[in-house]
Amino acid sequence: MVGILLSVRAAASVASRLSLPLLRRVWSRGVLVLAALWMSSLTLAVLPMVTGWLWALFVLLVLAGFFLGLGQPLTMSLVTQAVPVSWRSNALALRLMGNRVGQVAVPIAAGALAAPLGSAGAIWAGCFLLFVSGAEKSVRAARGGSRRAGHSVRRGGVTVRCCARVRVCASRT
What we know:
With 173 residues, the chain is mainly alpha-helical.
């Protein structure tokens, strides 16, 4: 039964990636990333509480899989847009390195939590990370967020051209 439930989650992730062009016509990347963070954290947080109901597990794993599947392609495109063209390969390499560090560190931390709290503790640790990421992105969006690479801002009679998230700016008068 576990294999079927995991397959359902994986199929929902594939479906979300296939529907991404349709979703992008309606919502921006930022909105979709926020939805992915919030909805995946909420659906996964409820998962340990409904282990006795197969239908609830099925529904939650379909939702979680759908929203978890949105994250990777959206963040890859956000990274490529946040830096100048000449920095894209370095930015993507840095993102992938962060993924690999997470693939090592998160299971170790989840295992440390699972020992005293059980398997639900490991799931809730992942939910906590997604929740904190969603909260941080929501706060940033409420404050005006970061701008796209190459935006220009007028400050004190000087036009400043900036690269988003990378504090490298070139001034011109």
